[in-house]
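Priority: medium. Attachment 1 of 2:
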């Protein structure tokens, strides 16, 4: 048997990644002029923990917009993405509504060129209710949304900045097909819009089902604001709970007087800190929340209580102009990774074959953790040193 050497593949995202056999394969053949190289028979596997159930909901995702350079009148776009269409029923229509009333922006329109909607040839209709500050788009077609791929951008929303500040854009409604099947997973759909240099952030985090997790609370660019003390209140949504014995681990060494109090009955956390050595420098993780393990897949928000979160300067005055960015914790099942099919390949004697592209995907793990292994059933025809796996 021919064993490919196990080596980590460094990927940059959680979605599907294309992997190539980047070096030519030079089989040593001395008995025949042609050989069928059955690459599809290679035993390719991705090494992770044992798989569990496969989710049927379709995740809808966006990214936060954090840009201190944006000024009133500037425009920006936000791709609205989906994942794992191959794990759900075919989607032939959808309705998406977003609410931008809580953000310092106006809505300019949806664009579908170059998206999964465009690939499927769907007909679209969009509407912007400026009085309610809600925009919607509907699409339908005869080909499924997955025509262009199982993951990707569905629509691109364009906004105009109305003022400096921060807020959230939410998705009150996303429906696939007329019967709302499959369901839309909106746990990662809402996004924050922050046009400020000074930010206090609860970072988004992922954990595997059955494992405890950590959520970082960090500060960005507090230097120059003379922040010497802080009082922060954070609300944790069900089903996420903090560790009752050790809810917080302080990371910064600039807060030499600090305290954390967690009320498990209300899922509210109060954190206070004071620096006797001068103002906080900013651009650092202040503390981490220690979360208890969840027994099933779930996602929940972790948000600042704006009214009870204050930063103060050395004179005891409340520091204004610091944006608060909420976060979330998602517990994901350890689903099996996927590998695309590789067709049979034919190669002439003393010639080269490759690269042969195939795709590995993983729903809920960092692709840098993946390892791809392969074996051949005839090492005389395909020697080990003639095959190399690469990825990007």
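Attachment 2 of 2:
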């Amino acid at each position: 048997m021919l064993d490919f050497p196990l080596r980590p593949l460094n990927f940059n995202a959680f979605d599907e990644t294309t992997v190539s056999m980047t070096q030519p394969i030079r089989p040593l053949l001395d008995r025949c002029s042609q050989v069928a190289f059955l690459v599809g028979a290679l035993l390719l596997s991705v090494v992770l923990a044992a798989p569990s159930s496969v989710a049927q909901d379709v995740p809808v995702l966006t990214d936060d917009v954090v840009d201190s350079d944006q000024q009133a009148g500037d425009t920006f776009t936000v791709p609205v993405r989906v994942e794992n269409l191959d794990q759900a029923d075919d989607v032939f229509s959808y309705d998406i509504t977003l609410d931008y009333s809580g953000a310092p922006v106006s809505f300019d329109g949806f664009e579908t060129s170059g998206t999964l909607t465009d690939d499927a040839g769907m007909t679209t209709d969009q509407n912007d209710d400026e009085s309610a500050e809600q925009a919607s788009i509907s699409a339908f077609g005869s080909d499924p949304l997955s025509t262009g791929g199982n993951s990707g951008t569905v629509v691109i929303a364009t906004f105009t900045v109305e003022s400096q500040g921060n807020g959230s854009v939410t998705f009150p409604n996303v429906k696939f097909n007329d019967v709302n099947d499959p369901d839309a997973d909106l746990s990662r759909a809402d996004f924050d819009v922050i046009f400020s240099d000074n930010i206090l952030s609860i970072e988004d985090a992922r954990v595997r089902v059955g494992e405890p997790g950590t959520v970082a609370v960090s500060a960005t660019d507090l230097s120059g604001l003379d922040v010497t003390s802080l009082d922060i209140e954070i609300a944790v949504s069900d089903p996420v709970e903090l560790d009752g014995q050790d809810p917080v681990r302080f990371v910064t060494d600039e807060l030499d007087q600090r305290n954390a109090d967690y009320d498990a009955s209300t899922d509210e956390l109060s954190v206070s800190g004071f620096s006797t050595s001068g103002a906080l420098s900013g651009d650092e993780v202040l503390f981490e929340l220690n979360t208890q393990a969840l027994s099933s897949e779930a996602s929940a928000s972790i948000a600042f209580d704006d009214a009870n979160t204050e930063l103060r300067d050395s004179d005891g005055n409340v520091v204004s102009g610091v944006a608060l960015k909420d976060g979330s914790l998602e517990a994901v099942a350890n689903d099996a990774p996927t590998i695309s099919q590789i067709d049979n390949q034919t190669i002439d004697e003393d010639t080269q074959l490759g690269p042969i592209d195939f795709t590995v995907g993983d729903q809920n793990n960092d692709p840098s953790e993946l390892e791809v292994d392969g074996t051949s059933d005839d090492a005389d025809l395909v020697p080990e040193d003639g095959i190399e796996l690469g990825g990007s």
